[in-house]
Amino acid sequence: MKHVIAFDISMGKSYMVVYNALKKCQLEKEIAHNRPGFMDLKKLIDDLIEGYDEQPHIVFESTGVYSRTLERFMQENNYSYCLLNPLEAKLQCDSLRIHKTDRSDAHRLALTHFTHERRIETDSNDVYRQLKRLSRHYSELDDELSVTRSRLHKVVQETFPELENIFTTKSELFLNVVQLYPHPDLVLNHSKTIIKNRILANTN
């Protein structure tokens, strides 16, 4: 490899370092995760490709929301890159005796790239990551739903507890009845026919 570009990512920006094959830092700077910042980054990468007939090795750590902007930039411009999970990055970088600073992580990632085999991201990796994100999103929604059901249960127990003995609490019918008749006094105000028609009208 002729060059390594490493990024230490934070909210809305990255600290970038460029190392040559002799493991010497040729450039370090902060780039903003916006159009001008990415235009400058694209020019830097393209200049290295044109000058050395090889794409520089690119490496950064996955930091969730913050790193996705940089990932998207790499994918849209068809740059290959290595994406490390936080534990993997820590284990590899802790072997270097570099004084820990806010900017040292980028240097650590670059220097360890010369001695570690790292997986290059591909389209299949991207599909896998999307599936993981969807799975995580599903789990978050399921957790929120459990909390909401628990709150509803507490309220119903205080206002109309008999409803939970009549309907399955996870059913759409139960939710519709709770909305229409959150208290038994409301049931007493209507005839059986009106109650039946209201429930039917509000149930698919």
From TrEMBL:
Cross-referenced Pfam families: DEDD_Tnp_IS110
Protein name in the entry: IS110 family transposase
Swiss-Prot/TrEMBL GO biological process terms: DNA transposition
GO MF annotations, alphabetized: DNA binding; transposase activity
Domain annotation Transposase IS110-like N-terminal: ranges: 7-161
The organism of origin for this protein: Lysinibacillus xylanilyticus
